[in-house]
Specification:
InterPro entries: P-loop_NTPase. This protein has 212 residues and is mostly helical. The chain is 58% helix and 6% strand. Strands 1-2 form a two-stranded parallel ribbon. Residues 207-212 have low confidence and may be disordered.
């Protein structure tokens, strides 16, 4: 398996140390896959390598843990499911600023001077514009959409909706780039309306409220 090879490569690099393994959509795993992860954990442990496994998934993942505890599969729970950490979306303007700053600072290709913001609006960027300066504006746009749609629960922006909104703004801004250009509230409001946030929350709102 490709995953097996990657784990072995990581282990050979680590020598005697720690290997981190992130497993997304872990609620889809069956008993055989958890047994396989346990075997990998034990094999690395014999080589004095600590495997830290992060199982990332939906609420069903907690049900799987409970089912394994009831079934007496403590060897899997003890190795792979020790702690439970809630994973939240963006919950305030400060979180928005942190994420927008990533667009301003992260360069691609790595080592170049071209951040994501600069790629789309190079003239505005070189003149000093940064997406992070719009953090409050974007948060307010999501907050307005949340309340106008009477969505249940507190505002929490999923990264998929957030990234989609930023993508819409950057692509629209590309056509109007200039040294004095900056996004206004109208453009951010447009992006939030078309990023799918309201639709996804309406579809899952009851579930989110029940789980909170």
């Amino acid at each position: 398996m490709r995953l097996t090879l990657r784990i072995r490569q990581a282990a050979s690099i680590a020598g005697s140390g720690v290997v981190l393994l992130f497993c997304d959509e872990a609620q889809r795993y069956d008993d055989n896959e958890y047994e396989w992860l346990r075997d990998v954990h034990d094999a690395l442990d014999r080589q004095q390598i600590k495997l830290l496994t992060f199982l990332v998934g939906q609420q069903e993942l907690l049900s799987q843990k409970t089912a394994m505890q009831v079934a007496g599969k403590t060897q899997i729970v003890a190795r792979l499911m020790v702690e439970e950490l809630a994973f939240y979306g963006i919950r305030n303007a400060q979180d928005v600023a942190t994420c927008l700053n990533g667009y301003d600072q992260t360069a691609y290709p790595e080592g170049s001077q071209w951040s994501f913001t600069r790629f789309y609006v190079p003239q505005a960027f070189d003149a000093g514009y940064r997406l992070v300066s719009d953090a409050d504006t974007l948060w307010n746009a999501f907050e307005t959409a949340h309340h106008k749609s009477n969505l249940p629960g507190k505002l929490g922006i999923p990264m998929e909706s957030f990234a989609r909104a930023v993508e819409i703004v950057l692509k629209d801004s590309e056509l109007n780039d200039a040294r004095d250009y900056c996004q206004d509230q109208v453009l951010w409001d447009h992006a939030v309306r078309h990023c799918g946030y309201v639709q996804s929350r309406q579809a899952t709102g009851r579930v989110l409220v029940a789980a909170s």
